[in-house]
Amino acid sequence: MRRFDIVTLDSPNRAPLRIEGFLFGEHHDNAPSVAIVGAMNGDQINQLYVASGLVEYLRRKEEEGKIIGEILVIPAVNPYALNMGEKNWPLDKTDLNMMFPGYDQGETTQRITARLFETLKGYDYGIILEGRRDQGMCLPYVKLIQSGYEDLDAVRDLGMGFVHYRPYEPIETAMLQYNWQLWETNAFAIVFGKNGAIDQSDSDEVHNALIRFLSKRKLLDWPVFEGKKSNILHSQQITLLKASRAGIFIPKVHCGAFVKKGEVIGLIMDALSGEKREKMVAPCEGIVTCQYSHPLIFQNSIAFRIASVEHSSTQERL
Amino acid sequence: MGLIEEVLTIELPVGESFRIQRCRYLPLKGESNKRISVVSGIHGDELEGQYVCFLLGQWLRENPEKIRGTIDIYPAINSLGLDSITRSIPFYGVDLNRTFPGSKNDFLPAQIADGVVEVMRGSDIAVDIHSSNIFLREIPQVRIAKSQEKMLVPLANLLNIDFVWVHDAVTVLESTFAHAMNTIGTKTLVVEMGVGMRLGKAYGHQLLDGLLNLMAHEGILDIDPLDVRFPIQSHVGEVAYLNASSPGLFVPAIEHCQVIEKGSLVGHIVSPLSGEILDDVIAPIGGILFTIRAYPIVYEGSLLGRIFGEKQ
User: What's the pLDDT tens digit per position in A30-82?
Assistant: First the structure.
């Protein structure tokens, strides 16, 4: 294992920023290379935990001589934010994952991402451990955007239950996955957990998926159990259930639950009088893949996302 | 006196509603011929526009007989943010000016954006007043996307500002208030002036004169056009960016809005710890320094200023 600084940046007063990488194995003609990026925001503790756990696992496997290709793990892109409970770059609040591909003559965060991206370019596979971008939590899933450079076969080797395969949104052109794909790395993201927390079960699932991927793609000489057969979900298969009123949100089911059409899956109470304001009823049969995670809910917030085998015809989709 | 109305309310979780208020002025007699919306506070840390709204309201109260159109004043769009020194929409941390045109059936910031567009739909003109952010101080300027140059530059030239900056289209700017309003036929100008979290009285009065002049030209006010300054036009030159080469404390050497020579000193980056001057910040081109850093802590890359000068 080689531990090294990918980016260093002096600060006016605090200790310098260091984005550290952990490199395992070496270039091999018969094995691909992969880079795995952990917490890009300061609230992605689950992503940090999985990435650092992977570093420890790979360190042991390297000692056993089991690593064939080259594997780079970057557990924390934004340690400054992690160390002070901020989500974004602490001075100007920019989101580092909105600054790709970066610009080495630009603003501070553009320079940071430009330097990071220089290191990330050229890997065969790129895996981004992502948190949610809303007030939600979800079953671990693969987010694969359609830029014309994506590789659906590769993500099946993770053996994860759901792959959300969808066109990219304009805002995603400033994110790592899109830019990495544009530079011809087979890049995808694994989205999981609740921001600011660690879920051990989800973390184990993602850890195992990463090891399965490394093994199946011949980077790791180590047998693994088969994973799940991935369900490729398109946006039309996901039904949104929104809160029609604001108040205290009481979910009655949790991510992973199989719900029937008509089943009561959540309540909203008036936060002062305690009166019931809304009974949330599942509009279709399916699996709850995401739910709102804050106890206070706003009008029209997405309370649940339900994935169905059949395409939804009546509900609003995302 | 204007009519104060609550034009948008959205239920919040605990016994409160989010609200946007406006003050509407109509002609004392006769039909209104045109409608203008004056907007501020889309960012909760930008306050220069609030002062302009006050000045305009004060003028209109004193001169009601001059009014020929509908004049709507919206001083506080992000009312939650303004009352809590929060730039974005609180709770969500989302920049409202990256959420337009929004949707009724979406999260709170999108509902606010949608409500704002619907309330202002039908205005002939909108003026969206910003004051940069807490990091940068700007001379009064209007920024216009290249695609709207022909339609908007003549209006911007009436506003008594110092600079009209026509910039290339950027995808992310398609989610702004100005883009959304221009798309539905309201000619919308974005003014940037001053600095976040502060008031500059002189700039407020300068823009008030500009607004009165604009309304005189458009027939919304029955007054003679004012003798206003003609802004520098960005197409005649180029913008140079000054970025910090090292971290430290930025200490400006010259006043804002000053014509400077190529090679002249803009400021220093200094080390409070060692007492050293770490870098001399030198103007790469001659021209007018129209942006200068107001917040002194800088990292490598932090924007220190912008100079508009002749093409090299």
Answer: 889 999 999 999 999 999 999 999 999 999 999 999 999 999 999 999 999 99
CB within 8 Å: B13 and A302: no
Which of B207, B230, B253 is a domain's end point?
A: B230
Contact A107 B302 (CB under 8 A): yes
For residue A271, list chain B residues with Cβ-Cβ distance below 8 A.
13-15
Range of the domain at A258: 236-307
- Contact between chains at A299 and B299 (C-beta distance less than 8 A): no
Chain A residues close to B104, C-beta within 8 Å:
300
Q: What is the CATH number of the domain that holds B87?
A: 3.40.630.10
Q: Is A302 on the interface with B (CB under 8 A)?
A: yes
Helices and strands (H and E) in chain B: how many = 6, 17
Q: What is the pLDDT of residues B34-73, one digit of tens each?
A: 999 999 999 999 999 999 999 999 999 999 999 999 999 9
Secondary structure of chain A as H, E, C letters: CEEEEEEEECCCCCCCEEEEEEEEECCECCECEEEEEEECCCCCHHHHHHHHHHHHHHHHHHHCCCECCEEEEEEECCHHHHCCCCCCCCCCCCCHHHCCCCCCCCCHHHHHHHHHHHHHCCCCEEEEEECCCCCEEEEEEEEEEECCCCCHHHHHCCCCCEEEEEECCHHHHHCHHHHHHHCCCEEEEEEEEECCCCCHHHHHHHHHHHHHHHHHCCCECCCCCCCCCCEEECHHHEEEEECCCCEEEEECCCCCCEECCCCEEEEEECCCCCCEEEEEECCCCEEEEEEECCCEECCCCEEEEEECCCCCCCCCEC
CB contact under 8 A, A316 and B171: no
Q: Say whether both A186 and A298 belong to one domain.
A: no
pTM value is 0.91
Inside any domain, residue A314: no
The two three-digit tokens of residue A206, written as one number: 């993602």
Name every chain B residue with its beta carbon within 8 A of the beta carbon of A173.
171
A274–chain B nearest CA distance, Å: 11
This complex has an ipTM of 0.87
Mind telling me how many Å the CA of A69 is from chain B's nearest CA? 36
Nearest to B13 among A11, A105, A247 (CB): A247
